Structures are given as structure tokens and as C-alpha cells.
Amino acid sequence: MRHSHNATLVIVLAGIVLAVLIWVIRPGSEGSRQVVVYTSVDQEHARRLLDKFEKETGIRVRASFDIEAQKTTGLYNSIRDERSAPIADVFWSSEASRMEQLRREGLLAPYASPSGASIPEAYRAPDGAWYGFGARARVLVYDPRRFQESDPPRSIFDLTDPALKGRVGIANPLFGTTSSHVAALFAARGDRAKEFLLDLKKNDVRILDGNSRVRDLVGRGELWVGLTDTDDVWVGKDNGLLLEMVFPDGEAGGLGTLVMPNTIGLIRGARHPDEGKAFIDFILSKETEADLAYGPSRQIPVRGDVDTPPTIVPLEGIRTMTVSIPQIVDVLPESLQFVRDHFLQ
Fold first, then answer.
1. Cα separation of 99 and 129, whole Å?
2. Single pTM value for the model
């Protein structure tokens, strides 16, 4: 009986050990390969690519998303707060300014991604700390029903026209691409940018929680025109909203249209650096950029040899602002302070 009892005990212990091993190595567990991605990209756009990466590589993706009202800024602050013990391995940002700030603070690890080698210099950090891809343009979105007898605005400065008082919307300029757009204006036009913001305020501009909210109010006819991103316009049109858009200030001698890429970078001290690099390589591939171009957000490839649908205006077809991403970041503290002190008060 004692021998039988011992044999039973051995079998039970062996079963426990086997169960533990299965739990540790099962797909998606803490024991399997994984990468932690912080991203400010809209979840409905990012999830498809995250799932594709998991399927192709077997690497589990644990993703944290920013909320619409605080695009980029919330996760940027989390990365800074976690610098002594990073949680994220990769930051995939919907714009570039906060990524460049992280690079300057030493919170990104340079990585020479083979997929990023063909990306133009204007859209990547010189040390390989971040790469840009899948760009969006800052556009004027308008309700065509409101402009049947007149031309829609062609310049962002047209938004201060008294005829549009109370009929213009923008996202909160402390966050996301709107904050970068304001900083670009400061870099390009200095005091003229301050005058523009003050004139917008006098014209009772509506300040909203995110670019998609601007789009929705224009599409519903509650506002006549707004500033938003091309991806928001495309999604709105696909969802049945009556919208049109203008690439602003594109005439000769004009300010030009701000084009802002997605960016991606490896967090310094990442716990899963190899998996993080694999994810970066995947995201920076031409196949992924084409996927983004054909997807609902219609993002604009930064490389001219990436396949795109005919609805997308290529970068060479847009007269872009000449300010660089580092120039935008140089003036970002000043522009944010002016917005806090004089525009939002």
C-alpha cells in the first residue's frame, strides 16, 4: 500500500509540473515572446497591424492606447515617468514631436532598422532613434452645403474671417497633431502665429476633444469648417458624413500644408529589445506602409515607391511646410505656454 501511495504521489507531482510547464510556455503567456507597445494611433487602425504581426511572428503584442483627447501626450508622459524601469518596449506615435522630445531626453535607443534604411532623411532621426512613416496632412475640412455660393477657406488664416465666427472648430492645441501644427506655425511665422491664435479666439473658435470630434461636428452641419487630419476626413466620408477637404496654403509663396508622419522608436532599457526591433522592422516595411495607404485611414507613404490607391495625393503633390520636425520641437515649449496663457484662458 505504501508503494502504491508513493507511486500515486509521483504521478500527481508529475502532473502538476507538466501543468505548470504548459502554463509557462503556452502562446500569449508571460513565458512566451512578447513586446509591449505604447501607441497613440487610433485603436481601430492599429489593431489590425498588431494582429498581423502576432500571426506572422508568433510574438505576442501587449498594447496600451492613448485616449482621443490627449493623443500622444498621455503615453509620452508615461514613458518619461517610467524611465527608471521602462514598461514599454516600443512607442508608436501618431505624430513626431513627442518622439523627438523623447530622443532629446535620452529615452530612446538608436536602432539601425533595415526596413527604415529607405526612409527619407527628413522623416527619421539622424541617429536612428526614431523613424517616420505613413503620414497624414493637416487639412481644412468643410461642409460643402455651407459653401454652395462661395468658395471654402483655402488658408488656415481664412478661419479668422468674421463670416465664420462661431462656425470653426479645432482640437485642443495642447495635444496631438494640433499642438505640432501650432508649433510649426510658431517656427514658420513667429509673432504672426500668435496673432492668428488670438484672432481665432476672438472669432469664437470651438475647441474640441480631438480631431475626430472636429470632423463629426462639421459632418453633422453644426460647424462649417475645421482643422483636422486627412485620416479623420477619410474615415468620416466612409461612414457617410458629407465632407470635403482642402490642403491649405498650397499656393506659390504660401505657408504650405503641414505633413506629419507616424513615428516609431525603441525605448531605452526595454525589457524585450529583440522583440521590439522585430516589431519596428515590421511596421517600417514597405508592405506595412502600403497596408496603411489602402486602409481606412489612407495614410500617405513617405517613400515614393510604395503602392497607393488613386485617391491618395502623394507627398510630391502637396506643397508642404518647410519647417523640420526638430524646428517644431525647438519652439514647442513656447507655443504650448502661449496656448495655455493666452488662447485657452
1. 9
2. 0.86
Which amino acid does the sequence have at 83?
Answer: R
Cell of 161: 474671417
What are 300's strand-pairing partners? Answer: 135
Q: Which helix (H) or strand (E) holds 18?
A: helix 2-25
The CATH homologous superfamily of the domain defined by 136-258+330-343: Periplasmic binding protein-like II (3.40.190.10)
DSSP-assigned letter for residue 233: H
Q: Is residue 259 classed as helix, strand or coil in its secondary structure? A: strand
The set of residues, in sequence order, having a beta carbon less than 8 Å from that of 82 and lying 6+ positions away, is 88
Q: Are 35 and 276 in contact (CB under 8 A)?
A: yes
The yes/no answer on whether domain 34-135+260-314 falls in CATH 2.30.30.240 is no
Domain chopping of the chain, boundaries? 34-135+260-314, 136-258+330-343
Count of alpha carbons within 13 angstroms of residue 179, beta-carbon side: 28
The answer to whether 260 and 180 have CB atoms below 8 angstroms apart is yes
82, amino acid identity: E
CB 37 within 8 A of CB 279: yes
The per-residue pLDDT string of the chain (345 residues; one tens digit each, 9 = 90 and over) reads 444 444 444 333 434 333 333 233 333 444 589 999 999 998 888 999 999 999 999 999 999 998 655 556 789 999 999 999 999 999 999 999 999 999 999 999 999 999 999 999 999 999 999 999 999 999 999 999 999 989 999 999 999 999 999 999 999 999 989 999 999 999 999 999 999 999 999 999 999 999 999 999 999 999 999 999 999 999 999 999 999 999 999 987 889 999 999 999 999 999 999 999 999 999 999 999 999 999 999 999 999 999 999 999 999 999 999 999 999 999 999 999 999 999 998
- Please name the helix (run of DSSP H) or strand (run of DSSP E) that holds residue 217, with its range, or none: helix 211-219
